[in-house]
Amino acid sequence: MLSKVRNPFIISEGRLGRALVVFMALGFLALVAAGAGAGWASRQNEAHTAAVAHTYQVELAISNARRLIEQGEASRRGYLLTANPDYRDAYHRWSAATPAALARIADLTRDNPDQVAALKLLQREVSALLAQRARTIGLIDSGHADTATTLFRTEASVRRLTTIRDTFERMAVTERRLLAQRDAAQQASVRAFYIILGVAAVLLALVALASLLTIIGYTRDLSRSRDRLRDFNERLEETVHERTSDLSRANEEIQRFAYIVSHDLRSPLVNVMGFTAELAAATTPLAELVDRAEAEAPQIVSDEARLAVREDLPEAIGFIRTSTQKMDRLINAILKLSREGRRVITPEPIDPAAIADTVAGSIRHLLDDRGISFSVRRPMPSLVTDRVAIEQILSNLIENATKYLEPGRPGVITVSGEAKRDRVILSVTDNGRGIDPRDHQRIFDLFRRSGRQDQPGEGIGLAHVRALAYRLGGTIDVDSEPGRGSTFRLNLPKTYVSQDSAA
C-alpha cells in the first residue's frame, strides 16, 4: 500500500491566495465605502452650498427691492420740493423696477411660508405706497404743487414706509438665520467627508500592512525552499531524462511489436483467404456434379447433400470471406498506425485554409452528390508543422462529416481557425446527426464507434487523428449533441518543436 508523503516543496499557495483575496476584498470594500461616503458628503455639501447661495440671492433681492423703494421715495420728495424733471424721471425708473424686484423675491421664497406671508404684506403696502406717490406726481405735473404738498403732509406714507422697512428687516433676519443654519450644516458635511476619508485611509493602511506581512512571510518560506527545490530539480532532470529514454524505447518496442504482430497475422490470413478462394472455386464443380446426379440418378442424392452444396457451403464461404476481409482491414489499419508512428515529422510553413481547399477538391464529387455546402473561413492563422499529418487529419474529419449527415437536412461543413497566444485551433464544424456526449472520448479509441452503424468503417480514423495530433504536440476534442451537429477542434502549437530538440 502506498503511503502519502508530504512534499516539502509545496508552499501553502492556497492559503496565501485566500488571504490575499480577503485583504483585497477588504480593501475594495473600504474603497467602495469611502467612495460612497465621499459621494454622499459631496452631494450634501453641494446641497448646502446651493442653499447658502440661495440665501445670499434672497438677501440680495430683498436689499435691491428695499433700495428701489427708498430711492423712489427720495426722488418723489425731491420733485415735490424742486419740481425738477430729473427727480420725476428718476422716480419713474425706480417705480418701474420695483414690481420686478418684488417678483424676484417671490420667486426665490416660494418654498418658505414665513417669507411668503411677509411678502404678501409687503406687496400690499408697496402697492398702496406707489398709488399715493402716483397721485402726488400727477398733481405736480398738472401744476397743483400746493395741493400736492398738502396731500403729502396729510398722507400716511411715513407709517407705511416704516411698515415696509420692518417687513424687509424681518425677511432679512429670517434669511440670516437660515444662512447660519446652512453654514453649520455645510461645515458638518465637510467634517463628515474628512472623517470618512480618514477612516478609509486607516482601513487601507491596515489592509496594505497585513498584505505586506503575509507576502513577506510567504517570500521567506519560498526562499528557504528554493535551495531544496534546486537540488531536487537537478535530480529530477536526470530522472526525467532516464524515464523519457525508457518511455521512448518502450514506445519503439510497442510499435515494433504491433508491426511484427500485424505482419505475422497476415501470413495465416493470406492462407485462409487463399483456401477460401479455392473452396469457392470448388463449389462450382460440386454443384454441377449434384445437378448431373439429380438428373441421372436422383435416388443417390440426399437432401442433406443437396442443401450442403447449394446453400450451406456458399453461405459458410461467404461468412469466412467477409470475416477475413474485415480482419485484413484491421491489420492494415494497425500497420498504418505503426508506420505513422515511425514516420519522421517534417515541419514546414503551411496554410491550413489551402490544405482544406485541397481536401475538399479531392472529394468534390462526393460533396456535390450529397448536396453538401463546404466553406473555409478566412483569414486562417498559418502553422509551422507537418503537412502530411495536417492533410490526413483534415481529410479524416471532413470525410467523416460527409458520412454522418442528418436525414432531411442539407449538409453544411465549415473549416475555420483562430490563434490563441502561441496556439492555433482548427475547427471542422458540421450540421450532421451529432454525437452523444457520453461517446465524446470513446470515439477516439481504436475500433470504437458511436451511434447507428449504417456507414462503412472500422473505427480507426479518429484514433489515427488523435495519434497524429499527439505527435504534432497538440490535442483534439469534440463538442456535439445528437441532432445538432458536431465541432471537432484541433489544438496545435504555432510552431512544431520535436521532443528531442525540446529536451
Automatic annotation (TrEMBL):
SUPFAM superfamilies: ATPase domain of HSP90 chaperone/DNA topoisomerase II/histidine kinase, Homodimeric domain of signal transducing histidine kinase. It catalyses: ATP + protein L-histidine = ADP + protein N-phospho-L-histidine. Gene3D superfamilies: 1.10.287.130, Histidine kinase-like ATPase, C-terminal domain. Residues 222-253 form a coiled coil. It is an enzyme of class 2 (transferase). Its EC number is 2.7.13.3. PANTHER family: BACTERIOPHYTOCHROME, TWO-COMPONENT HISTIDINE KINASE. This is histidine kinase. It comes from Sphingomonas kyungheensis.
